[in-house]
Amino acid sequence: MKYVIIGGTHAGISAARTILKANAQADVLIVEMKENVSYISSGINLFFDGTVDDLADASYATPDLLKSEGIKLMLGSEVLNVNTQDKRLYVVSGDEQYSYVDYDKLILANGSKVVKPRIKGIDNENVVLYKDLEESKRAVERLNSAGKRILIVGAGLAGLALASSIYEGRKGKDVDITMVEAMEGILTHYVDQEISSRLINDLKEKGVKFILRNDVHAINVDNNDKVISVSTTDQEIDCDLVVFSVGLKPNNDFLRGAIDLNQNNTIKIDDYMHTSDEHIYAAGDNVEFRQTVSQHRSYQPLVNNAVKGAIVAAYNCTGLFKPIKVETTQGTTGTKLFGHYIATTGITEENAPYIGLNVLSSTIEEEIEYNYVKNNSKIVVKVIYEKDTEVIVGAQIYSENNILDTINVMSVAINMRMTMAKLATMDFYFNPAYNKALNSLNEVALARTIKPCRISK
Prior knowledge:
Number of strands: 25
Helix content: 10-25%
Shape: globular
CATH class of the largest domain: Alpha Beta
CATH topology of the largest domain: FAD/NAD(P)-binding domain
């Protein structure tokens, strides 16, 4: 049995390794259009904050390592067409060297690409879009050589993470960061306005400027083709370099006519990661995942979704086990931005009405204590729950302390349809050297479930 996987990043490598765990004798080939594998798309952030000295080090596997594990590689090879009738890929490699690759089972892990707006000036050398290693190298070169006035379009996770890493890398000096966002707040897919506003205020103290409710319509250059400003919905902003971080889109154009695609160009799959073709599975940034709360599919390109989908696709395509379903997703995320940790899972209170939910929320803000001594650091916890059932559907946590792992508890709570009453008395460990007797998650649930009452005489 020959297994061919298109794509050599998170989903593709996870699928290859899973197949070999199931069958050590399997013939597994990864076809990757780049000359490298396993590059982390946020590697540019690791470079600027000093975690890695070379962008090429922002990876978790080398070609030699994968080969030693029994995985065959075909790098620098782009799949142009999939012939499902003959189970054959049409591939171009290097200097237009064309060849065929046959398969018995195919896993599509071809990922996504950055959205490139169609606006004036987008192709200027000081306009940066990045995702893969070569794009990231170019971005670093331009960011290091351009002036200090950096304008980032898009205040989502990727845009804010880049801004944070640049700021930290330069120790807050010789950098002037402006962020332009079309929405009314930042991280609007992940947090409500009250958390967004806190983050904005904290970042403004670092000197970051925000232009909200504005779209970029043009990039303006001088007579030497040097970027001097951008034109937005209602103003012109001076800058030396522009970074676009406005989202990703699935890289599925070559699949048209071969398998069924959705209107947004994602691959149609079932809960077993199976496509419309019986011999083809798909996983990663090229598919939609079913959301736990709404039970609807949506496009949410996150590494955690890509990896778990790839594992399910790999197990199922071997035919060696009873088919397993992929778990629904809560869209759980966590990151550090300008010295502040923020983590989210599930839906926001503001987005709940759009999926037909009537919700309430509970928010607490308290000082963090160790050894019963307050350390002047606060934690903000918000939990969103259904009004009628009190089933938890979302959570947001924000602090200067590393609270990222806490969000995993809330992700499980949403997946298991836990109620606020149960969370209020849930058992958490206590050690006076590290925390307090009543966990913040207990506190936020108690704030809504235990209400004062008057006993009649």
